[in-house]
Design brief:
Structural class of chain A: mainly alpha
Radius of gyration of chain A: 24 Å
Shape of chain A: flat
Strand order of the largest sheet of chain A: 1-2
Number of strands of chain B: 2
Number of strands of chain A: 2
Largest interface: A-B, 63 and 66 residues
Distance between the termini of chain B: 36 Å
Helix content of chain B: over 70%
Oligomer: heterodimer
Mean pLDDT of chain B: 80
Mean pLDDT of chain A: 89
Order of helices and strands of chain B: HHHHHHHHHEEHHHHHHHHHHHHHH
Order of helices and strands of chain A: EHHEHHHH
Strand order of the largest sheet of chain B: 1-2
Chain lengths: 157, 510
């Protein structure tokens, strides 16, 4: 997704203003001359300046470019679904992490993505549970990362 | 460095756990580097959760060997499929692929491994010799010098990471802004935490980096057709690893020396790192070659020079990281973070108080680079099989690893949210020409920069001229000012011309 500098430049400057406003609201310590607000203030000023520079560059280069160009996402539906699942599947995984558990959800997530990306059923059925189990055992038993077993708790404990 | 320090360091390195870490790191790096689109930085980021459970030296040895191997193995998909495995190998992918089309894949792969290892050994030697010396000099540094060094590193990174200075600086400011989240280092006041307890401790650079490099790369793959598994393999020719390599070494000695020297010099500059070295080396090789017309047709000369610079730069990037505590690139930024987590603070004091520790880390480079020879031999033999793993299998595995890596930082799902947001932001940034490396360096160096800036402001009473009163600080300050003036002048000329100058554009090494 490409966004025109005619949007990016002003957005950066506006963001700089927001940062400065946020910095002015930070608590101050009496007697401390250079406090928590100094660095964010400087960063905010930088954003405003760079936003202006990028806007000027877009102005000089002239128009022609779309404000938002989504043409690179004109890909087959299967790829679009795979891209959506890549992100949405992980978000869903965050919400189902405790209740469903890491091993079962990770197998489902991997299997769906593998199939959407063109892997065969046989490869999917073999690879996704094998890899997830190896990772689960490696991280939870080997590295002691507390990964919830969830619905498979009875089997894996 | 004393003989006693060297012997102590050798005894640390030649422990079973350190050697095993080096070997496993090398095999892992070989696997990651050989897969298209997976970078050495990504491989390092994914290793961080594993290092939580290791002692400092094996942890860094793991990172060092995986990075050295990933950078070298990154030449493999570039040579065989014209898909660069790492940003560094993108510089000469066309050249090596042309050799493959001529049936010289074995030679191209051998050049990659052999000269990477040789360049790495040169860089490690320079690191071993100059590291303690530079540390002694830098012990006299005050907050003013460290402030300017941090500025210099961030500045150079922002300027060389892309073709557009404004975009590089924007990326840098994003990183610096993220670094201000959490408790203020001087007053303890909470900043930009929005009532979230998880933000009180700041934003960890690990999920940000996993998201920006790995997750964004996968998102980008959906639009660039890299998700398919049917990439056609060219004919490999006869695979005989390292055959004729010494003949090439004798024929092009200056290319090797120049490439290794350049890589060492560029890699040692804080904020630049090894990735850029290969791009500069290839360009320089063509400029000084007697047969520049052969470049791009499968000519080994440019390949030797740029692969030599690759690993030389990788080793010397640790000079600013170990000596000043200022990472030279994203990989050393992660490694410095790992050392901090282990309670080992990189910087000049480390060379004085515990000299065997940095020396042991440097010795790991020698072992890792020597391992490139046998593992490279095996990798060349196995090239076809390694590359046959379809992306439809490897991408889902990487995504689950991204999830686990981000979660394991603090064992909370907050890290996964950070990774996802950083991934989408990283994707949008790269698609719109904003480099990612400055974000990471800004995030890592932000606290160093702010601490030294605030301290210097307090010492000088807010007088900015105080930043130029000490000789080394004045020199560094003048260098920074000159770079800023040159950048501003170039931008003004650009605006007056009104059109971009393609020749001036520096290829982004992301």
């Amino acid at each position: 997704m490409k966004i025109s500098d005619r949007i990016t430049g002003p957005a950066l400057s506006l963001f700089g203003v927001v940062v400065i406003v946020g910095a002015t609201r930070l608590p101050t310590v009496p007697g401390v001359r250079f406090g928590a607000d100094l660095m964010p203030m400087l960063v905010g000023v930088g954003f405003i300046g760079l936003g202006i520079a990028i806007s000027m560059g877009a102005f000089i280069a002239g128009g022609g470019q779309k404000l938002v160009d989504l043409s690179e996402w004109h890909v087959p539906m299967r790829k679009k679904l795979a891209a959506v699942w890549t992100f949405a599947g992980l978000v869903l995984g965050i919400f189902l992490f405790e209740s469903v558990g890491f091993p079962l959800y990770a197998v489902i997530y991997m299997a769906v993505l593998m199939l959407l990306m063109g892997a065969s059923w046989l490869v999917t059925v073999i690879v996704s549970p094998t890899v997830v189990m190896l990772l689960y055992v490696g991280f939870s038993k080997g590295l002691l990362v507390p990964l919830p077993a969830g619905l498979l708790g009875g089997i894996l404990s | 460095m004393s003989v006693e320090t060297l012997l102590q360091a050798l005894s640390i390195v030649f422990q079973a756990d350190v050697l095993l870490a080096i070997l496993l790191g090398a095999v892992y790096g070989l696997f990651i580097g050989a897969l298209p689109g997976l970078t050495a930085t990504m491989s390092t980021a994914l290793l961080v959760p594993v290092t939580f459970y290791m002692a400092p030296v094996p942890a860094i040895a793991l990172i060092v060997s995986s990075t050295a191997m990933a950078i070298s193995a990154g030449d493999m998909p570039g040579t065989l499929l014209r898909i660069p495995g790492t940003p560094a190998s993108a510089a000469y992918t066309d050249e090596s692929y042309q050799m493959t089309l001529k049936g010289k894949a074995s030679t191209a792969l051998s050049i990659g491994f052999f000269f990477s290892a040789m360049g790495g050994l040169v860089g490690a030697t320079v690191l071993l010799v100059t590291g303690p010396l530079l540390a002694k000099i830098s012990l006299n540094f005050s907050s003013f010098e460290f402030f300017w060094l941090a500025v210099l590193g961030l500045l150079t990174c922002a300027l060389v990471s892309g073709s557009d200075a404004a975009r590089g600086f924007t990326s840098l400011l994003i990183g610096l802004l993220i670094s201000t989240v959490g408790l203020d280092i001087t007053t303890g006041a909470p900043r930009f935490v929005f009532g979230q307890m998880e933000l009180m401790g700041g934003v960890s650079f690990i999920p940000v980096m996993i998201g920006m490099f790995a997750f964004s790369e996968i998102l980008r793959g959906f639009t660039t057709g890299q998700t398919g598994s049917g990439a056609e393999m060219p004919k490999l020719g006869k695979i005989v690893p390292f055959q004729g390599i010494f003949g090439l070494f004798r024929k092009y000695p200056f290319s090797f020396v120049r490439g290794a020297s350049l890589g060492t010099a560029v890699g040692a500059l804080p904020g630049i790192g090894g990735d850029l070295a290969a791009w500069i080396a290839y360009g320089m090789s063509k400029r000084f070659s007697k047969t520049p017309e052969k470049y791009g047709t499968g000519h080994p000369e440019g390949l030797i020079e740029s692969t030599s610079s690759n690993n030389a730069g990788l080793s010397s990037a640790w000079i600013p990281a170990l000596v000043f505590g200022i990472p030279g690139d994203a990989v050393t930024a992660i490694a410095v973070g790992v050392l901090f987590m282990k309670g080992v603070n990189p910087g000049p004091r480390l060379f004085v108080e515990n000299p065997s520790m940095p020396t042991a880390i440097i010795l790991c480079f020698f072992v890792a680079n020597l391992l490139l020879f046998p593992l490279g031999f095996a990798a060349i033999k196995l090239a076809r099989h390694v590359l046959s793993i379809p992306r439809s299998v490897i991408v889902p595995i990487i995504l689950v690893c991204c999830f686990l890596g981000s979660y394991a930082v603090n064992n909370t799902l907050f890290g996964v949210w950070v990774m996802l947001i950083a991934g989408v932001v990283g994707y949008l940034m790269e698609r719109n020409g904003f480099p990612i490396a400055p974000v990471i360096l800004g995030l890592v160096l932000g606290p160093v920069l702010e601490r030294n800036f605030i301290m210097s402001m307090q010492i000088s009473g807010g007088n900015l001229l105080g930043f130029f009163e000490r000789p080394i600080a004045a020199f560094l300050g003048v260098v920074v000012c000159l770079i800023l003036v040159a950048t501003a002048t170039r931008s003004i000329l650009y605006f007056r011309r009104g059109a971009p100058d393609e020749e001036d554009a520096v290829q982004s090494p992301q």
